[in-house]
Amino acid sequence: MVRLSFDTEMWERGILLVPLPQDVRDEIEADLRARLLELVATVRDVVLDFSFWSRRMRDDYRRLLEPTGVVPETIFVATDRETVLERVRARRGSHPDDFVLSDELAAQYFDHFEVPTAEEGPLTVIASSPANSSDSRH
Fold first, then answer.
1. CA 99, CA 109: separation in Å to the nearest integer?
2. pLDDT attached to residue 132
């Protein structure tokens, strides 16, 4: 499968600070959406490694893929707030999946995340455990 990631795209463009200015975010998203459609057209399996923090964004991508006949599945790694914040604090900025966020920004992202529900479409929920907290990715 092919993994498309905002973080990887930012890293490859030399962007190391978040949050992104809206125009840069829009440009990256447009590029990723175009690549997604190209990959789906060639019958490739694709993982969108995005935060998908809002139902609106998840619905938007479902609408984007609807004409292709692809029904996306949401994989949600259910992780408690303290574990997420601990993992983010452990980041060092050494690779694309290791962006450093302030405690305040990480908490804001977590607190505004809209948990996906089965009514949105296919959903797999994976329980994360604090024992995995040494892994800086979530």
1. 14
2. 47
CB of 65 closer than 8 Å to CB of 113: no
- pLDDT score, position 17: 85
Q: How far is 106 from 80, CA to CA, in rounded Å?
A: 13
- pTM summary value: 0.85
Residue 44 CA to chain centroid, in angstroms? 19
Taking the CA atoms of the chain, what radius of gyration do you get in angstroms?
A: 15
137 has pLDDT over 70: no
Going from N- to C-terminal start, the domains of the chain cover: 2-132
Which CATH architecture best describes the domain 2-132?
A: 3-Layer(aba) Sandwich (3.40)
DSSP code at position 21: P
DSSP 48: E
Place of tokens 């990723």: 32
CA-to-CA distance for 21 and 96, rounded, in angstroms? 18
* Residue 134 and residue 75 in contact, taking contact as beta carbons nearer than 8 Å: no
